[in-house]
Amino acid sequence: FANIGVENTDENRRVYRHLLFTSDMIMERYISGVILFHETLIQKTDDGTNIVTLLQNRGIFPGFKVDKGVIDLLGSDGESTTQGLDDLITRCQEYYKMFCRFAKWRCVFKIRDHTPSP
């Protein structure tokens, strides 16, 4: 938001998503799924419709980001590890109940002579 001079607040992010997901364009012809963050799963459009419901009504599958970010892997040569495995099953079950039907997990690998580690 900073590059367009808009403050990055919960409400501004909600308004932005409302604008994207309620546009009159035929988005559902080209987009079959949208990766959502937890805050988006509970947000509503201006008329009170849950964003997940709005996407479903347009034939778009809601999904979610399940990893909890990447951190440096201690004792390695610049490698990293992804956080979030500890409670992954619980979070997946929770998001499934919230009508999400796919998940995204981010893992970074640096390919060099000696990495990833053997």
UniProtKB/TrEMBL annotation:
InterPro entries: Aldolase_TIM, FBA_I. This is fructose-bisphosphate aldolase. The keyword Lyase applies. It comes from Parasteatoda tepidariorum (Common house spider). GO terms for molecular function: fructose-bisphosphate aldolase activity. The keyword Heme does not apply. One of its GO terms (biological process) is glycolytic process. Belongs to the class I fructose-bisphosphate aldolase family. Transmembrane segments: none annotated. Pathway: Carbohydrate degradation; glycolysis; D-glyceraldehyde 3-phosphate and glycerone phosphate from D-glucose: step 4/4. Its EC number is 4.1.2.13. Keywords: Glycolysis, Lyase.
